[in-house]
Design goal:
eight-stranded antiparallel β-barrel, 12% helix, 52% strand, 2 helices, single chain
Length: 182
């Protein structure tokens, strides 16, 4: 009978996935767009995420990420300020972008399709982010890429609405290094 009393405790323990803390020094979120036909690369310098993941229980995994849009950098100060304006990210009214996962679907080996909702500039869209996730002891690395259409998020208003100067497709890549929370 005493063994039966342990079942709820064991079930609760096995159902809880590990929590991870982002290693900001080793992690990057980058984006690329075309401007007048030339590729321009940028990064978001400040972001954080609440991550819960266990490869043995991907159905229990979750990620809630927040990006400080004001931290975008393309190595051109004038362009960066323009991208923060009301025509683009509208940082004054929308200082953060968020991603909230809904489901981790195993895609073979260490690959997962992470379905979730991305909110930029107050507009939320469902996306699937193909990811490779590897764990080595108390360290984890996740890498993935998805191409976004900037029009889905209202990026590029007025004179910037077309694709003559800035292309519509924006590949976004991320590499997140994390360590298991104590």
């Amino acid at each position: 009978m005493r063994h039966l009393a342990l079942i709820p405790l064991l079930l609760a323990f096995s159902a809880s996935a590990a929590e991870w803390r982002v290693d900001h020094e080793a992690s990057r979120i980058t984006f690329t767009f075309t401007q007048m036909g030339a590729a321009v690369e940028g990064t978001f310098e400040r972001f954080d995420a609440a991550i819960t993941f266990d490869a043995d229980a991907p159905e229990d995994a979750s990620v809630t990420a927040t990006i400080e849009v004001d931290s975008l950098a393309t190595r051109n100060g004038e362009r960066d300020e323009g991208m923060k304006s009301a025509d683009w990210f509208d940082v004054a009214n929308h200082p953060t972008a968020t991603f909230v996962s809904k489901r981790f679907t195993p895609a073979g080996g260490d690959r997962y399709d992470v379905e979730g909702e991305l909110t930029i500039r107050g507009r939320t869209r469902s996306i699937v982010l193909p990811m490779t996730i590897s764990i080595d002891g108390d360290r984890a690395r996740a890498a993935g890429e998805a191409t976004l259409d900037r029009r889905d998020f209202g990026l590029g208003q007025g004179d910037w609405a077309g694709d003559t100067v800035i292309g519509f497709d924006v590949p976004v890549a991320l590499t997140i290094e994390a360590e298991r929370a104590p």
